[in-house]
Amino acid sequence: MIEVRGEDLPQLFSSCILALFSLLVDRRTVREAEARSAEVTGDTLEEKLFSLLREAFLLFAAHQFLARTAHVTIEGKRVVLTVSGEPLDSSRHTVIREIKAVTAHALVVERSPGGYLARFIVDV
Amino acid sequence: MRFQEVEIRKLSETTWEIPRKNGMRVPGLIFASEKMMEDIARDEAIRQVMNVAHLPGILKYSIGMPDIHWGYGFPIGGVAAMDAREGVVSPGGVGYDINCGVRLLRSELTAEALRPKLRELISALHREVPSGVGSTGFIRLTAQDEEKVLTEGSRWAASRGLASAEDIACTESGGKLPGADPDAVSAVAKKRGRDQLGTLGSGNHFLEIDEVTEVFDEEAARAFGLFPGQATVLIHSGSRGLGYQVCDDYLVTMADYMRRNKIDLPDRQLACAHIRSPEGKRYLSALAAAANYAFANRQILAHQARETFLRFLGMGPNDLGMRLVYDCGHNNAKFEEHEVNGEKRSVLVHRKGATRCFPAGNPEIPQSYRHVGQPVLIPGDMGNASYVLAGSPEAMRSSFGSTCHGAGRKMSRTQARGSVRGKSIIQEMEKRGVIVACASHKTLAEEIPEAYKDVSEVVGVVHDAGIARRVARLRPVAVVKG
Fold it and tell me: What's the pLDDT at B140?
């Protein structure tokens, strides 16, 4: 179970994305060479976060792209993610674990003292 | 026995009934000893058995095996049979690793004869059989080849000289599920699978050399070609990234279907669609394709293992005699005929962490085993034992022809890692007489024997309950962990 805190929702969501990539690789080894973006929609905060995490994971699973930084904007139902990073280079990056998928199991986004809190589980 | 607000009724020494409550359409049924039930009641698995009982079209019981533990939506170690006309199919009822399963190869060698060369042999297997995070296979599939793998399964491997006719005959469903449609598999899923055919993966996947330490049923052991002291090879793997992505894709499709059709269930991960809906049919076509990929994957792993044995030992195939005993999946959904309330019905049996277990006489069983029942392969942990069981008639009466699939976790991966801090797992395993080669020490720490329930106890329950019978026990002597 991954637990993430943020002062506001964009910061919370971008920290969730970075937490996901930190499960895959030591992000300090990732260069900010190029940007990728993804856009999702969702009615609830949980739907938004789940869809965003799925899209972010697909950047790696389908395109072998690793993110060093992440920026999120939220407008109504729409969430836009921009990550900066580079494609996996096995001479410099060691993938730490095999992630099967991001799950919706027990995923929550809620208010907490000082901002927001999210919890999610990835299947490994 | 109580689980939160629920009074669980003991039906026998090995069976427990969870009564229908609220929206449950059927009761729950758990196979376990009293001691195991106390452990099972400590996590969310019982709640998940109850949640599964809410699914439209579920028949008789939502079932839990003695190796049950919590999963995403459905518990791992769960069985749910749905009416083929009115019921639903749920990707969560199969799991992310579609048709993850086990295959057992026997040999003409004894473990004793291998012992002096075991360290080098397991190193060779570790080198030749790709394992670990991000590993890729020696096969580079073109897009066309991959489509053939998805439709033909192990038979594609046979067309490339990587499987024999006997391999195909001794694989569940002949290594090919019907109805597979590559078009139902997303481009992303295909991309994830393209370079991974013939790879073990990581996590709890393994290849191990075992010794047959005890035979319980001589007739069945003889039919399966097993004898005491024999060296065997057990392989545990699945459909790799392709299967994970199929599950992920269709969980989203089905969440949308549920919204549109106003199906309300207690857990999002139970997302489902009616079997006869376009969404349900498409998932079943993708499921069959991913299952076929898994059959082909294990076939190629077995081929690599066989070739490595032959090269390393400098033996001919007849002297080595490394032949497939059986290959069975434990994450699947299959259409089968079962008797429900005295009537033969076509049902879709979801098995998530449960193994098909057909009794003697069933035409789905290879001819040479038909008089003793289907071989059922139950991997335990890397330090203790694995089992070979055989199907029995009681499984058809009480568990939709299903039994357990393994030891079942009792520690989370994080707990397991925490419990071994500072210890050398490889040395600990050597003290137990098991040589370990691994791709990742972190993964190895997650797979310590203490992280699992006692597989002998699990197997004891299914044997006593009559939903499988013990044939032989295997002890690991050398292990490749992904």
Answer: 85
CB proximity A28 to B under 8 Å? no
Confidence of residue A45 (pLDDT cuts 50, 70, 90): very high
Residues of chain B short of pLDDT 50, as ranges, are none
Tell me the DSSP string of B107-144.
-SSBHHHHGGGHHHHHHHHHHHS--STT---S----HH
Q: Which of B268, B438, B481 should be substituted to probe chain A, the one whose Cβ sees the most A Cβ atoms within 10 Å?
A: B268
Residues B193, B139 contacting (CB under 8 angstroms): no
DSSP state of B358: P
CB contact (8 A) between residue B442 and residue A97: yes
Between chain A and chain B, the number of residue pairs with CB atoms below 8 A apart is 55
pLDDT tens, B238-247?
999 999 999 9
Pick the residue from chain A with its C-alpha nearest to B414: A1
**DSSP letter, residue B173:** G
ipTM of the complex: 0.88
Model confidence pLDDT, tens digit, residues B200-229: 998 889 999 999 999 999 999 999 999 999
Q: What angle do CA B456, B459, B462 make, to 5 degrees?
A: 155
Who's near B282: CB < 8 A, 6+ residues apart?
Answer: B181, B184, B250, B253
The whole-model pTM stands at 0.95
How does strand B469-481 pair with strand B206-215? antiparallel
Q: Is residue A98 classed as helix, strand or coil in its secondary structure?
A: coil
Residue B401, phi then psi, degrees to nearest 5: 60, 40
Q: Compute the nearest-CA separation of B20 from chain A (Å).
A: 24
